[in-house]
Design goal:
The structure is a single chain. The chain is an alpha+beta fold and 343 residues long. It folds into three domains: 2-95, no CATH class; 128-214 and 298-303, Pdz3 Domain (Roll), CATH 2.30.42; 219-296, PDZ domain (Pdz3 Domain), CATH 2.30.42.10. The protein has helices spanning 2-31, 97-126, 144-148, 199-203, 229-233, 252-260, 307-333, 339-342; strands at residues 36-52, 55-70, 128-130, 140-142, 156-160, 180-186, 189-195, 213-215, 219-224, 240-244, 247-248, 266-273, 276-283, 292-296, 301-303. A hairpin with a 2-residue loop joins β1 (36-52) and β2. The longest helix has 30 residues, at 2-31.
Amino acid sequence: MEILVMVGQLILGLSILVGLHEWGHLITAKMFGMRVEKYFIGFPPKIWSIQRGETEYGFGAVPLGGFVKISGMVDESLDTKNLTAEPEPWEFRAKPAWQRLIVMLGGIIVNVITGIIIFVAITYSEGYDYIATKDVKYGIVAHKLGQEIGLRTGDKIVAINGKPFNDFAEVRKVFLESNSYYTVERNGEKVDIYVPNNFIEKISDKKNAGEFIDPIYPFSIREVTPGMPASKSGLLAGDKIVKVNNQPIQFYHEIRDALSNLKNKKAVLEIDRKGKIVTLNVDVPEDGKIGFYPELGLTTTHIDYSFGESIAIGTQKAFSVVTDNIRGFGKIFRGEVSASKAL
């Protein structure tokens, strides 16, 4: 049933995108006085249509695209039977080149405008949540890929390419750049850590998900999953795990690592429950997860934007999707990234 729902959502989403794209061709053609004979979402055979004026609007049975048929335009249908006659004023071929170009670009223009509207709406309604660099006060956890380039757990990233930064999420923007480096504070000294130009190949590999860096988080228990070992042991929301098998625990990566090392074994948890120490015995399953969601203890900054600010920021975010792809292609063309691994 879930698969059917997902397929339905995919078809609906594709149909909306195709409908908007083809509507861009339709509206620009009509704007310049061209005759639009058909506007269809989906390919033949036809399952439903209605005639409105000179245009037939309808749906095709194959939901993999759509089309607009404009008089005097040779398209995928290769309908050339009327092209030997003199062009009529309402035909595509009778219009100036600049109008024909706008009609041909109409679908792309509408797609771009739609993307901008979506980003503006999200920015205005949701604002933006982020962790400020200054609030990552305990430093980072360096996972496997972070360690490969020289980062260490406890490092504090203070600059990217020699420049201070405010939003901690910006640490990932360097992957699309060349000759980038982090400046970290380590044991009272500043150290530059260079990012290989082909590092994006590793970071984008699904098997390396979560293997770069995270902020070091203090934590407490936000939610316990019913039926899981944590729930069976008596762990409660609001508890703080302070020891595992007498090993002190302060940060989330420490409890995750401790439990990972105790797979298929028993663990003794010491819990701070409203100032009282409670001892719990828990069986750690094969995946090392006992069944709780953490309340991560770093400050999150929220920004609300005015409508005017949302237009500017939403537009910038929409175009950044395009520019990021261009930068990615640039790394391929410069030979910094393998084209086969970038697909």
